[in-house]
Structures are given as C-alpha cells and as structure tokens.
TrEMBL record:
This is Glycerophosphodiester phosphodiesterase. The lineage of its organism: Bacteria, Bacillati, Actinomycetota, Actinomycetes, Actinomycetales. It holds the Pfam family GDPD. One of its GO terms (molecular function) is phosphoric diester hydrolase activity. InterPro entries: GP_PDE_dom (IPR030395), PLC-like_Pdiesterase_TIM-brl (IPR017946). GO terms for biological process: lipid metabolic process. Residues 33-314 form the GP-PDE domain. It comes from the Bacteria. PANTHER family: GLYCEROPHOSPHODIESTER PHOSPHODIESTERASE, GLYCEROPHOSPHORYL DIESTER PHOSPHODIESTERASE.
Length: 316
C-alpha cells in the first residue's frame, strides 16, 4: 500500500452559474445511453465488487465505466463494498466492526482478499469510475487517498447524503464530477415538475447567424439570452430552489426511474437536467425495453448488471 498520509487539499474554485456538461461524464452515442457496470456487473457465480467482476467487465469492452461503493472498517479504511457486511467464503463479516488488517484475512468465494480504494484506482487506470460513499466514517481516509492522486478527472463521487457530497466537493474542488445527493435531487425534481426549470430545444433560430462568407457568428440576441438565463438560474440558486452544487462543480444526476412507486425520470426531468448542463444517469437498468425507453427520453447513461446484454439490445 502507498502512504496514505495527509496532503494539502485542492483549492475550490467557483464555476459559472450556467453550467456546462463535464467531459468526464460518459455520454451516449447516437441515442444509445452509455453503459456503466453496476458493482462490476458480475456474471453468475462471480462476487460483486470483486477484481474478477471488474476485470471481466472491462475485458468485454461493453462498459463505459465502473460503478462501485465504499464502506469503512473500524479504523476508517475505505473498502470496496456496497453492503455493510463483507460476504466472505466463511460467512458475513461486519466491515465496521473489524480493522482493515483483520478484514484482509478473509476471502471471497472466489478466493480474493478484500479490495481497498487505493488498489481499485491503481488497478483500473484511465477508466471512468463512479464511487458512492455509503457512510460518513469512510470520508476522511478516502479523501486523503484521493487528494494524493492526479487522476480525479476520471471520477464521479456520490452519496445519498447531500451534505456528504457537498463536504467532499468542498474538500476536493472542481477536478472530479459529483452526483447530487437525495435531498438535492428532490429539490431539483420539484423545480422541474413545477415548471421553474424548463427544457426544450438546445438551440434557437436566433442563436447563430450566417455572415456574408457563409460562416457563423454569435448574435447579440444569444448573448442577451444567456445573460438573462445566468441571472435567472443564479436567483434560483440564491433562493435555495436549485442546489448550489450544480453551479460550483460538474454534476450529473444519478437516479432510479421510480422511487416507491413515484416516477422520478420523466421527459421533463431529463430536459430540465440538460437545460442546466447535467447529464442524467439511471439505475439499475436490467431490461432491454426499459433501456430503449430511457434512450428515447434522452437519458445519457444507465447503470446495469447486464451490460453485455444491453449493448447488443441497443443495436437492434
């Protein structure tokens, strides 16, 4: 393991109040949402969030990136695991009840030892990774590891806790992308459904004009429209209607299509997210018909356990 000592944090810089999509977020091509391997999208018999699952998924070439989760051991070390229990070959182990050294004595059914955050990032260089901080206890040591790296631009950091995401963003700054937490998603959803956020054509007939040489130039109408839009979105931020996170950092929305029977992902939501420069990711999509429907709505990527199947479905 590398030295996980503390290093100076990256400065936080504010971005425009009119966000643009970050290049780090995988986007679909030709109406086909990008596919992200949910917990490594393991085949049957392969443990989720394992080296074997991640290796096989990437070897197939279908996944645009990996999605995974962090839990914390008793001494705070970040472990790649969705559940609070590590499902070992000899039974479940409560991750928070043991140290990293103690957990490392256990094995998965495929013989693997636990996978830590640092090894995970080193093992898959240059790969887009979506990392969900499941508990507050994992934040301090995870941030120390991330602060010492130069590849934050390939990461999107997430948590169901909106304050936790904000804390991480304030510490790491604008290099990674961020996925807003549940409260921020709810606020944005209400803004979309109430009509405060609008979506529509991304270009208007007056945004560019043809000059006498056949080229294109910015029109004064477009400049005025963008100034008004910045002011409008800024007011929505100041009133607390729109999450501040969207304005200071590159963000994407990662949400289920429905939550407890309530639809979250709709055409209006997708259009609203795109209107403020945020891609839309949907989890967990394991049905080809659902994938095609979301594609028709303009969803940018989906998390799936069956990326190989959906890749073939998307070409039909």
């Amino acid at each position: 393991m590398k030295d996980n000592g503390s290093v100076p944090s990256h400065p936080v810089s504010s971005r425009s109040v009119y966000p643009r999509p970050a290049q780090l977020f995988p986007l679909g091509v030709a109406g086909k949402p990008a596919l992200l391997a949910h917990r490594g999208a393991p085949r049957q018999g392969v443990p989720e969030n394992s080296r074997e699952a991640f290796d096989e998924c990437l070897a197939g070439g279908e996944a645009a990136g990996l999605e995974t989760d962090l839990q914390a051991t008793r001494d705070g070390y970040p472990v790649i695991s969705h559940d609070p229990f590590w499902h070992g070959a000899k039974g479940d182990v409560e991750i928070a009840a043991v140290t990293w050294k103690e957990l490392s004595r256990h094995r998965l059914l495929n013989g693997e030892v636990p996978l830590g955050l640092e090894e995970f990032l080193d093992r898959y260089p240059g790969i887009y990774v979506n990392i969900d901080f499941k508990v507050s206890a994992v934040v301090p040591q995870a941030l120390k590891i991330l602060e010492g790296r130069g590849d934050l631009g390939r990461m999107a950091l997430a948590s169901f806790s909106a304050p936790r995401v904000w804390k991480i963003a304030r510490r790491l700054g604008p290099q990674p992308g961020y996925l807003p937490g549940g409260l921020d998603v709810a606020r944005f959803l209400l803004a979309c459904e109430s009509g405060v956020i609008f979506g529509g054509k991304s270009r208007r007939e007056w945004e560019t004009n043809e000059d006498s040489l056949g080229g294109k130039r910015e029109s004064w109408q477009k400049i005025l429209w963008e100034l008004r839009e910045k002011q409008r979105l800024g007011r929505l931020r100041d009133f607390g209607i729109l999450p501040r996170l969207l304005f200071d950092y590159h963000c994407a929305f990662a949400v289920p299509e429905t939550f407890r029977g309530w639809p979250l992902v709709t055409r209006r939501f997708v259009a609203g997210a795109h209107a403020v420069g945020c891609p839309v990711y949907v989890w967990t999509v394991n049905d080809a018909n659902q994938y095609r429907r979301l594609a028709a709505w303009g969803v940018d990527a989906v998390y799936s356990d069956i990326v190989h199947t959906l890749r073939h479905a998307s070409t039909k």
